[in-house]
Please model this.
Amino acid sequence: MESALDWHTARALLEWQIEMGVDETISDTPVDRFALWAAEQAGAAAGAAPVATAVAAPVVAAPRVDAVAEARAAAAAALDLAGLRAALEAYPHCELRRGARRLVFADGTPEAQVMIVGEAPGRDEDIEGRPFVGRAGQLLDRMLAAIGLSRADSVYITNVIPWRPPQNRDPKPEEIAMLQPFLQRHIALVDPDLLIVMGNTSCQALLGKRGILRLRGIWAEVADRPALPMTHPAYLLRNPAAKREAWADLLSLKARLRALG
Ligand code: URA
Model:
């Protein structure tokens, strides 16, 4: 039967049931197990075969899908950014897409020398369909402006995860893994001189490790180019004292850019 509920309402109802303590779904109609038991006992006493309490549905094994292999093939087939965006739009295996309003693909200048990889869209980005447009994004714009950079002409921005996770939870390792081929292809197609790896999720996806407070400020290499891990602007909003180190990282980025000419 087609449900009249939209996805968000259905999910909210399900979450409410879980909060109320429902931990198992059995059937739409109640089963009187006392009556079944009584009938079975009566049948046994009369020498009849036991009453069947349930008819097991035949188990049909669903074909196994290798979501990462499919992501790899789809990403590799994308010849340009429009193709990559279309490939992501068509990719069915990430559950996050079902709860998100929009795909948040990228913003800024694809010809930029600097590509920033953030974590995942939040509420504002989900509504607008562009990365880093909320408070953290506004701080990011001010940080970039402080060293003479802007999305309008010198920076390209994307995220590891293009769909907003529910309640802004951290992306799961399997979500990062299945979206990684798209991110790698994204970097190859933009082909920036330098990468900024912003926050722990990006470190996980691009450097294979977490611990941004240890990693920040130390240049690494990602996809054959220099990559600078930096603390996420959302972290800086919560911990203004960390802006001092972020400023040092911005100066390090500026120096690298100057050295590139
Ligand atoms: N945080 C991110 O990492 N990315 C966004 O797009 C917004 C907030």
Q: What stands out?
A: Strands lie at 107-108, 114-118, 155-159, 194-198, 220-222, 225-230.
